[in-house]
Amino acid sequence: MRPEPGQVLHFSEDPTITRFVPHVAATAHQPEPYVWAVDHDRAPDYWFPRQCPRALAWVRPGVTTDEDRDRIIGAGCGDRVHAIEYAWWEAMRTTTLYAYRLPAGQFRRFGETESHAHVATEPVEPLGPPEPVGDLIAWHAAAGIQLRLLDNLWPFWDQVITSTIGFSGIRLRNAAPRPA
Fold first, then answer.
1. Model confidence pLDDT, tens digit, residues 161-171
2. Per its UniProt entry, which superkingdom is the organism in (predicted)?
């Protein structure tokens, strides 16, 4: 599930949204209200139940070392890995997620060094009804993205953030506590 040209996507478990109104997210680091969306490259970051903690890692061409690629992603295992905890596997299998297609022209890139999202400061209406995303695991497989199951995300996350790999951590506050 990726946007078409001229579109960005918003993923939700709520299929009844008819208008997106800017708001300040509970976890926001900025005080401005936004409507959030993602583009083609970042759509896979949201092929998860909303509250599912996840550690995402990918090869950055010209930056990631071969050693880090083999250590974090795995030798011969593609360019990207998404890790979740076993406790979230059932939700990953059974959650119904919807994609809302939104007009890209109403959004601007968000992120100073590496844009990870698009934001709008005015209300946005979807381009049509939301589309069920379907099997979240199958989307990962079709995109060639490893889906790694771990007892605990923190040891993996600590390796990722100290490497040359690109990364994003989403809903990590919902992860199991760090091991002692």
1. 999 999 999 99
2. Bacteria
